[in-house]
Amino acid sequence: MEDLLTAEYRTIEAVKGPLVFVRHARRAALGDLVTLEIPSNEIRSGQVIEASEKWTIVQLFGPSDRISPGTTWVKFAEEGAHIALSPLILGRIFSGSGEPLDSLPQVPPLERRDVHGSAINPVCRDLPTDFIQTGLSAIDGLNTLVRGQKLPIFSCPGLPAGEIAAHLISHACVPNEEGGFAVVFAAMGISSREARFYLETFESSGALEHSVIFMNLADDAVIERLLTPRFALAAAEYLAFDRNMHVLVVLCDMTHYCNALREVSSSREEIPGRRGYPGYLYTDLAGIYERAGRIKGRSGSVTQIPILTMPDDDITHPVPDLTGYITEGQIVLDRRLHRKGIFPPIQVLPSLSRLMDRGIGEGRTREDHRPLADQLYACYARGTDQRRVASIIGEEALNETDRMFLRFAEDFERGFVGQGVESRSISKTLDLGWRLLAALPEAELVRVSKDLIRRYGAGGEEHGWTENQQT
Amino acid sequence: MAGPTVQARGLSGCFMNEIARVGPWGLTGEIIRIEGDLATIQVYEETVGLKVGDPVRTTGELLSVELGPGLVGEIFDGIQRPLPRLSALSGDFIQKGAEAKRLDRERLWSFEARVKKGDLVEWGTILGAVKETPRISHLVFAAKGVRGLVDEVREGDFAVTEPVVILEGGETITMRQKWNVREPRPVRGRLPLETPLLTGQRTVDTLFPIAEGGTAVIPGGFGSGKTVIEQTIAKYASADLIVYIGCGERGNEMADTLSQFPRLTDPYAGRPLMERTILIANTSNMPVAAREASIFTGVTIAEYYRDMGYRVAVLADSTSRWAEALREISSRLEEIPGEEGYPTYLASRLSAFYERAGRFLLIGPDEKRTGSVTIIGAVSPPGGDFSEPVTQASLQMASTFWALDTDLANQRHFPAINWRMSFSLTYPSLLKWYRQLASSEWSSLVREVHEVLQQEEDLAEIVRIIGLDSVADRERVLLEAARMLREGYLRQSAVHPVDAYCSIRRQVKLLSTFVFCTGRMFAAAERGLPLDLILGAPPLEALLRLKEVCDEDLDVRIAELRRDFSTSLGAGVV
Question: B478-504: per-residue pLDDT in tens?
């Protein structure tokens, strides 16, 4: 950044935690990057978060030790965080603020862009309609993901969200289409153990060469964490809308991101909202999640899979709550399923994909997809209800039909949701659904039409399974 | 400068709520506080990149909307910038300081005069009409403060800025008006609410109706189907005009609405929905201050069409995002926070918004003209907890309350309107309409539904403890009847070609069939018929699927069902 205009000051007035108050920095603009040079020639960096006639407030990216009003020089780069972009970013690993971590040189930029981006004009958005096959039945069959969607995974501490993300990174594809996804991965505040797991996934699946990775680990600077997803999304938007690629963005873990935002907010002495998170958490998250989608007249797309951990398994915690209000659905993981040894432990009842209807049905997946999904949902919901009843009055007290539903719920969890390391095609997923429904009396199946039952159900002409075809 | 607010010095003569242009890009902002020489401006665009010392210019205007032909079918952002024309100017992403005229200056409208030389013109006088869309005839009327005799009338094709009527003394009148969004447009008086705003949704029209000119609040956690309900109502509501405000919601959802509405037709006029829809799209990643303005922009446009005598419905999705915008700005101003950090004026601002709904006598020489604005606001309570301030403040104002239930949504029961918590305060005053125009038995039919559902609720608790097999036959039948009502009547698919819209005629037919059939089941239970027969003999599944039968076949199918229930339950033929 040597070629940029900079202005230097030695007018630090106060240092409070990570905030540095600088006097007379007339030309500083909101969001500008700042470097601080302390006497040992060490360089620290920061960002302008507030500016007034009296002083400019700089938030440091790193520690504030040895910063002194008398001796530290403050340099203002007259621009905010920018990312260097070119197709050569593919296959590279960067820090959370865009510095190479893979001991390769800087990317020669074709373009430099503000990482904050701009809002897509809603009238220019194109509808997400292309079905993405993830290979996981609980997602493909019941909570279908489409290109341009943002669908988070709500995990709990100790559940294998990382393994699910790894499965998506290695298997997500659009059936009958050449070329897969470019993956942009942003790690925010994850441990080095998790980071190693993801890097191994990228290397072993061969995904690395069409991926861009941004790493902000648990011990990296907190404020850099706030920039990490923005670097990742600026890269994703470039690949999607300038290079016509389909980009899958995995953000992990949004809870760490929000905690970083809370930490920064409280150091700025802002009035806290729920659980100490700042009142603008929704707006801030929207600025990240809304950077997914498709644009009319451009062939690329940005699909987002944010992963977050629900503290104390609480879905009403502000992070999952506000996320759910912005994203187009959610995939909720369940500790009980995990304990039963079911992978992926996706609890389908609270999970949802809002854009599912656009991506399924005749010509996309199969005509029976929507009614079948509804029927499976309804039967599973009824089965889990019976499970509750049975736990009070005992299974023997249930009547025959109710016992069938109880068994259905069990089979559904083990055979449909649970699939281990296997990756299933969509038709296999749907056939499996019909197979499970065959165990129930036909009169109970009110959400699928008689015609569909005749064609796809047991003995039907289109049905794609046989009795001995097990998973 | 901090976030969306900036402070400026030396704006001599500036006044509260004046619009200012900030910085080198001329970002739009509104002055919200003045202290001596210092003015605080809430900026409606992204402030990153602004510098201390950047220029600020005042405009002498309040935050206002431009009113005139060309609004219907258009898509605006929260401060009425037309998004399609903005994209033509600045591309797929919204650039800083992008500006386009609110109303298209190029487009010509064919003006048909309704006044002639020598006529007296005053506030509210209808000067002429413009065919804005095939179904909206846009009345051009004299704005507040206009008074005089007509000197000249021009007919033909004009742009909104060209004079169409000239008064004696030379005052010219164009088709364009301006109005400050924060001030309700005046009316002559309020009228009682007596007509329901039909939505084609059985749970709404049958159990919890909303009046034309009424207000409804829809709170629900995420995934409970708020947006689907708002969109469904936008499609099927019996209003002349819909103003749909996407306030801080998802971009893809807006894109969905934008792609659907031009293709869909409404069930009343059979015309494309866009011909009666105005969209305000301020998605969640667009600037927070514009989000705050968006609901006022929307309701002011609605009032303008009300003043032409239309029945307008305003759908705001979601008022919580608006309240959060208010909170964000308030905290930047370092105001003392009330509950959950919201400013203490949250409730009064929200009330002022909902009070802009109503059925009114309009201003103008014709004293009998009426128009209405109905407001339906979605609320997104954090964690689905209805005790939070926005839901509670909205509840105090709303005449109708549709509580969305995450449990129902998880069972895929849509619309997920919880029949235990929801209410309609206007139902009694609408009953006369229902009795006259729907069915003379309306109130007893509705009462039956409420009763069965209530009894199911009471029973459910007992069943949970002692098990289904231990309850009496009569009660088993009741549970089954309640399930039929829930699944077969209340549950309604938003995408099924027949079921998505259910006219009030159809509702009466379906409802009376359900009440008849379940009545036969109760009677059979009373007579001591065996449970297996009551639950096994009649064609329950056909009754459940009755809602999917198209209008032409409905009467025949109903007659069959009534006969089958009667014969199979041994009560002879009807």
Answer: 999 999 999 999 999 888 889 999 999
What residues 84-113 of chain B have any CB closer than 8 A to a CB of chain A?
84, 86-87, 90-96
Give the closest residue to B221 by CA, choosing from B380, B335, B434, B8. B380
CATH number of A6-77: 2.40.10.170
Q: Which residues pair with B321 in a beta bridge?
A: none
pLDDT tens digits, A67-89: 888 788 888 877 788 899 999 99
Distances (CA, A) of A46 to A77, A89, B309: 10, 24, 58
Length of chain B: 574
Which residues does chain B have within 8 Å of residue A123's beta carbon, measured at their own beta carbons?
75, 83-84, 87, 258, 281
> pLDDT value at position A462?
67
Question: Which candidate in A79, A121, A262, A270 is best for mutational testing of the B interface (most B CBs within 10 A)?
Answer: A121
Q: What residues pair up with B246 in beta bridges, in sequence order?
A: B281, B317
Residue B415 has pLDDT above 80, yes or no: yes
Residue ranges of B 321-340 with Cβ closer than 8 A to chain A: 321, 324-325, 327-328, 331, 334, 337, 340
| Residue ranges matching CATH 3.40.50.12240 in chain A | 82-357
B148 in A contact zone (CB under 8 Å): no
Whether the CB-CB separation of B313 and B30 falls below 8 Å is answered with no
Inter-chain contact B382–A123, Cβ cutoff 8 Å?
Answer: no
C-alpha A271: how far from chain center: 28
Which residue, among A24, A125, A355, would best test binding to B if mutated, counting the most B CBs under 10 Å from its CB? A125
> Alpha-carbon distance B494 to B489, whole Å?
14
- With CB atoms and an 8 Å threshold, state whether B284 touches A290: yes
- Please state the separation of Cα A264 from the chain's center in Å: 22
Residue B514: C-alpha distances to residues A398, B486, B544, B573 (Å)? 28, 11, 9, 17
* B93-116 tens-digit pLDDT: 888 778 888 999 999 999 999 999
For the cut 50, the answer to whether the pLDDT of residue B535 exceeds it is: yes
Backbone angle region of A394, left / alpha / beta, with phi > 0 → left and psi within -120 to 50 → alpha = left
Topology of A82-357 in CATH?
Rossmann fold (3.40.50)
Do the beta carbons of residue A301 and residue A247 sit within 8 Å? yes
Residue B75 touches partner A, C-beta closer than 8 Å: yes
Residues in A touching B325 (Cβ below 8 Å): 283
**CB-based contact, B281 to chain A, within 8 Å:** yes
Structural domains in chain B plus CATH codes: 5-62 (2.40.30.20), 109-175 (2.40.50.100), 189-426 (3.40.50.300), 442-568 (1.10.1140.10)
The label of the residue with tokens 């030695």 reads A10
**Distance between CA atoms of B68 and B129, rounded to whole angstroms?**
11
By CB atoms closer than 10 A (0-12, 13-18, 19+), residue A183 is buried
| Positions of CATH 2.40.10.170 in chain A | 6-77
Q: Averaged over A233-248, what is the pLDDT?
A: 95
The model's pLDDT over A96-149, given as tens digits with 9 standing for 90+, comes to: 989 999 999 999 999 999 898 888 999 999 999 899 999 999 999 999 999 999
- Predicted-complex ipTM score: 0.80
Cβ–Cβ gap B283/A290 under 8 Å: yes
Hey, is the C-beta of B359 within 8 angstroms of any chain A C-beta?
no
Q: How confident is the model at residue A470 (pLDDT cuts 50, 70, 90)?
A: very low
At B561 the pLDDT is 94
Cβ neighbours of A355 in B, within 8 Å:
252
Beta-carbon separation of A321 and B222 below 8 A: yes
CA distance B113 to chain A (A): 35
Residues 6+ apart with CB under 8 A from A200: none
Does pLDDT of A471 surpass 90?
no
Cα Rg of chain A (Å, integer)? 25
